[in-house]
């Protein structure tokens, strides 16, 4: 039974069981009040932690969507921005660019490196394959 309950439910079950022990005279009222108070504080802390994690998860997802939107529109943004903004965009997306064999070699920052790699793989896959779900395979790691 205990393994199936989450932490918050387990604390509530303890409080309920301890209340029965209090009614049966197995424990005193002071002990019950002390332990029930501690366990209720633990429940409150647990709920706050859950809420904080849910907010962080939503924030993480929102940021990911914004990054994907930026990656999708980066070329158009770059073309119409003044030089100063172009530099800011390049600094945000790229790091450690170098000159090799007469060409600029761009090194992308995370997560743009993953997006660039995935786009290149998808382009190679679609050039040589049929309507096989190649993009799905790339993202799922197959």
Structural class: mainly alpha
Q: What spatial order of strands do you see in the largest sheet?
A: 1-2
SSE ordering: HHHEEHH
- The tally of beta strands, per DSSP, is 2
Question: What does the radius of gyration come to?
Answer: 28 Å
- Amount of beta strand: 5-15%
Distance between the termini: 39 Å
Total helical elements: 5
Helix percentage range = over 70%
Q: Are there runs of 5+ residues with pLDDT below 50, and where?
A: none
Largest sheet: number of strands, sense, barrel closure: 2 strands, antiparallel
- What is the molecular shape? rod-shaped
What brief labels describe this structure?
5 helices; 142 residues; rod-shaped; two-stranded antiparallel ribbon; 2 strands; mainly alpha
How would you sum up this structure, described in words?
Helix 1 (7-23) packs antiparallel against helix 2 (29-80) and helix 4 (112-128) packs antiparallel against helix 5. The chain is mainly α. The protein has helices at 7-23, 29-80, 83-93, 112-128, 134-140; strands at residues 94-100, 103-108. The longest helix is centred in the middle third of the chain and has 52 residues, at 29-80. It is rod-shaped. The chain has a two-stranded antiparallel sheet with strand order 1-2. The chain is built from 5 helices and 2 strands; from the N terminus they run αααββαα. The chain has a domain at 1-80. The model has no long low-confidence stretch (mean pLDDT 81).
